[in-house]
Design goal:
Layout lengths: L4 E4 L7 E5 L3 H8 L4 H10 L2 E5 L2 E5 L3 H16 L6 H17 L20 E2 L4 E2 L4 H12 L2 E5 L6 H14 L5 E6 L15 H19 L2 H9 L3 E5 L11 E5 L7 H8 L7 E6 L13 H9 L5 E5 L9 H15 L1
Parallel strand pairs: 7-11, 7-12, 8-9, 8-10, 10-11
Antiparallel strand pairs: 1-2, 2-4, 3-4, 5-6
Helix pairs in contact: 1-3, 2-4, 3-4, 5-6, 6-7, 9-10
C-alpha cells in the first residue's frame, strides 16, 4: 500500500503541513466532487486545506489531526472502499477518541466479518455497516459478545439501527433462525383510536423505524418473503406475553416506554440460542405520570449481573444532523440547571 508522503511546512508557514499522494486518481476520490470531502474535514476540524496538484497542504492548529484523517481516508479508497460523509465523520470522531483516551492503532476494534483486525464491520445483504464512534463500536462488541445487551442514550446515536444490522447479520450467517423486533405501543401526544384503519394500520406508525432499518439491510423481495415466513417479526410488546423466544435475535426498541412489569415479562422471554437487545432513551419517557419506566428499573437491578452488557451513549455519539447533537446538549444543560 502506497503511503502518502508528509512534509513539514517551511519555517515561514509554521501552521502548515503538506501531504503528497502518489495516485492522483485516488486523490480525486479522496477529495470528492468539488472537493466536498475536504470541505467537510475543514468544517469538522477548523482547518484549511489547499490542493496543489497531488499535494494537500493543511493549515491550522489541528493540522496533525486533519493529516491523520486524510491518511486513513486515502487508505480506505486505496482499498477500494466507498467514501461518504458518514465515513469522514467517523474518521474524525475516532481520531478525537484516540486523543482523549490515549488509544493507539493497536487498540482498535475487532472486525466480526473477517479481514483486517482493526475495524468493526457488519455485513448485510445490501450494505456493510460500520460504527462511527467508539461508543458505537463498544455497543456492537457487546451485541456480538453477550446474550443480553442494553443500549441507552439519546435519539440519533444508532442504537436501534446497529442492533437491527447485527440481527440481520446473525440471521443471514445462520447463527439465529429469526429476528423479532418489538416496541411498546405508547402514545406520544396522539390517540391511536382516532387514527384510521385496522389495528395493524394503527400500529404501523409505531413500527416504521424498524421497517426502515430492515429496508436498509435487505432487498425488498427478500424482506417480504422473510416476513411472510415469520422469520422476521415486528410486533408490539404486548404480543410477547406467554412466548419463549428461542434461536432468535430479539430487539426491544423504545424500552423507556415499557412499564416495570412489561420489562420483566419481556426479559424472561429469552430462550435457548437467542440474543436480546434492549434500547431506549431515558429522556423520552411517554408513560403516564407516576408510572415508572421499566428501562430505568432494569438498569438499576441488572447493572451488576454477569453476562449483561450496558452501553451508554451521549450527544457526542449522535450521527444524524450535527444540529441534533447541539439540541440534545442544550436540553441536557437546561435540565441540569
Amino acid at each position: 500500500m502506497a503511503i502518502p508522503m508528509v512534509h513539514e511546512a517551511r519555517p515561514e508557514t509554521p501552521l502548515e503541513l503538506t501531504l503528497e499522494f502518489p495516485d492522483n486518481r485516488l486523490l480525486i476520490e479522496l477529495c470528492g466532487e468539488f472537493d466536498r470531502n475536504l470541505a467537510q474535514i475543514e468544517h469538522l476540524l477548523s482547518v484549511h486545506i489547499l490542493r496543489r496538484g497531488n499535494v494537500l497542504a493543511v493549515l491550522g492548529e489541528a493540522r496533525e489531526d486533519a493529516a491523520e484523517v486524510l491518511r486513513k481516508l486515502y487508505a480506505r479508497v486505496e482499498a477500494g472502499r466507498s467514501l461518504d460523509p458518514g465515513d469522514i465523520d467517523a474518521a474524525v470522531r475516532f481520531g478525537n477518541a484516540e486523543e482523549e483516551t490515549g488509544a493507539r492503532d493497536g487498540d482498535q476494534i475487532e472486525m466480526f466479518r473477517g479481514g483486517p483486525a482493526d475495524r468493526v464491520e457488519i455485513g448485510t445483504r445490501k450494505k456493510t455497516v460500520e460504527p462511527r464512534t467508539r461508543t458505537q463500536a463498544d455497543y456492537v462488541r457487546g451485541l456480538y459478545g453477550h446474550e443480553l445487551a442494553f443500549g441507552i442514550g439519546p435519539a440519533g446515536t444508532g442504537k436501534t439501527y446497529l442492533a437491527v444490522a447485527v440481527g440481520v447479520n446473525q440471521m443471514i450467517n445462520g447463527h439465529v433462525d429469526k429476528i423479532i423486533l418489538s416496541r411498546p405501543a405508547v402514545e406520544a401526544g396522539e390517540r391511536l383510536g382516532f387514527l384510521p384503519g385496522t389495528e395493524k394500520d394503527k400500529m404501523d406508525p409505531y413500527m416504521r423505524p424498524l421497517y426502515d432499518a430492515l429496508n436498509d439491510f435487505l432487498p425488498a423481495k427478500q424482506l417480504q418473503k422473510l416476513m411472510e415466513e415469520n422469520r422476521i417479526e415486528i410486533a408490539p410488546l404486548a404480543f410477547m406475553r406467554g412466548r419463549t423466544l428461542s434461536n432468535a435475535f430479539v430487539v426491544l426498541d423504545e424500552a423507556q416506554n415499557a412499564t416495570a412489569m412489561q420489562m420483566k415479562m419481556f426479559l424472561t422471554r429469552l430462550g435457548q440460542g437467542s440474543r436480546m437487545v434492549i434500547t431506549g432513551d431515558r429522556s423520552q419517557v411517554d408513560l403516564p405520570r407516576g408510572v415508572a419506566s421499566g428501562l430505568t428499573e432494569a438498569e438499576r437491578i441488572l447493572r451488576g449481573v454477569e453476562g449483561i452488557h450496558f452501553t451508554y451513549f451521549s450527544a457526542k455519539d449522535v450521527v444524524r444532523h450535527p444540529m441534533v447533537a447541539k439540541i440534545i446538549e442544550a436540553y441536557d444543560v437546561d435540565e441540569a440547571g
